[in-house]
Batch of 2 targets.
Target 1
Amino acid sequence: MYKYKKRLIIFLVIHAILTVLHNIISRDVSAENFYFINNWTYYLVMSWGIFIVIYALRLNCPNCGAMQVIRGMSILSLRWPEAKCHKCGVEIE
Ligand SMILES: [Zn+2]
């Protein structure tokens, strides 16, 4: 699971960079232009965020199927993926 953890960290770092980039670029975008296509960095950040969520959702145990990152409905149940399944203890990688 270490490989997935590293990948997830890289994805989140890219997301942070994109968010900063969006803030710099969209400084000139006025409120009425907010939802227009020239605010493309906004959509970029949003779609990248959705991609990370989908990626995290797909990280599950091959034995019991338990999700390794999103372990519940609350934000507090988010965990980094580990070498062993948090539920059944099977070695994932
Ligand atoms: Zn498991």
Note: The helical segments are 2-25, 40-58.
Target 2
Amino acid sequence: MLVSLKEILKIAEAKNCAIGSFNTPNFESMQAVISAAEERKCPVIIMHAQVHEEMGLCKMEEIAPIMLFMAERASVPVCVHLDHGTDLDYISCGLELGFTSVMYDGSALDIKENYANTCIAVELASRYGASVEAEVGSMGAREGCSEAGESIYTDPDTALWFVKETGIDALACAFGTAHGMYLTEPKLDFERVSKIKSMIDVPMVMHGGSGVSPEDYREVIQRGIRKINYYTYMAKAAAEAISGKSYSQFHDAVNDAVSVMKADVTKAINIFCK
Ligand SMILES: [Zn+2]
């Protein structure tokens, strides 16, 4: 069934767990994620990232109706989320298409501009009963590796002000994770997670979730992370599974990729959602 981010994160708060949030830039990844969540009887978030349209993977107006269809018929709660919307017109289109949640990402802007645009996103989303996630601090580039220093980690006082004044439903925080592949093992600032959690009253989101150790996932969940964005390593697992094999039919490669992604997502869900 289709739910908003606010509703799905309430479940996470009650269970003291995190909801797995997976990018699904094609039908196969949607099948993998939703069937894994149904089998584990866990709520799940499927996401379309603006950057995936920019990379030519899928167009929002084509993939959104399929995401919504898959969510509505699922036996578990599913939120259909727009990931890293960096421009407000794109977010408006997403809301019109039926996304139940949007992320406005103003992390590359100065905090005042991020604040002003986030307020507009909250106002837009409220017209549709949709939820808003926003980001304070920065996880670095949306794709690829980043050498992020602590200076761009989320400052707890800024987070408190931002959440109060914008009225967002969830806050993406920077505390040592990065998007894409990790070259070295990430070192997470757990104390920062606890500090922000003690100050704000909306759920916290971790981006760059792929490649973090099971122990670190458990630690951040215990300290208050309620949504974990995950994609890179599931896509990598599927690519590795089919590369080097010779297939005579394309659909056989697709089926293999779906089952490998499903197994990877199941592994993640087993850690995130006890
Ligand atoms: Zn992200």
Note: Residues 250-272 form the longest helix (23 residues).
